[in-house]
Amino acid sequence: MNWAVEEWKEGLSPRVLQKIHELESQVDKLKKERQQRQFQLESLEAALQKQKQKVENEKNEAAALKRENQSLMELCDGLEKAKQKISYDLQVKESQVHIQSGQLNSSKKDIERLQQELKR
Q: How far is CA 102 from CA 24, 88, 94, 99, 105, in A?
């Protein structure tokens, strides 16, 4: 088959044949360069897709972390309210204990006074 491709060149001057050879060499060189660039393009496209996937994964992770953070903040708020309620309840109970302690002391004094009166 190569002979049929070369047949059209028969009878051409050496100078024209030289120019044809130069042009064919240039075509081969350009084809190789095109293949290299195509490979580079495909590699860059693959890298771009990988980066896009990485960005998407990071966005999803960031959204999940944001939701988790919001949930934790709500939990902290709930715990803070519970702590305040417990603190308030504790103050109320301490106040009641203080009052009852005072009543107990007063009752003890009354009992002691009554016992002293009974002894007399």
A: 114, 21, 12, 5, 5
Residues sharing a CB contact under 8 Å with residue 20, sequence separation 6 or more, in sequence order: 9, 12
- What's the whole-model pTM score? 0.55
Rg (CA), the chain: 48
Residue 16 DSSP symbol: H
For residues 40-66, give the mean pLDDT: 98
Mean pLDDT of 30-38: 98
Between CA 83 and CA 91 the distance in angstroms is 12
- 35 three-state secondary structure: helix
- The sign one gets for the Cα dihedral 46, 52, 56, 58 is positive
Domain positions in the chain: 12-119
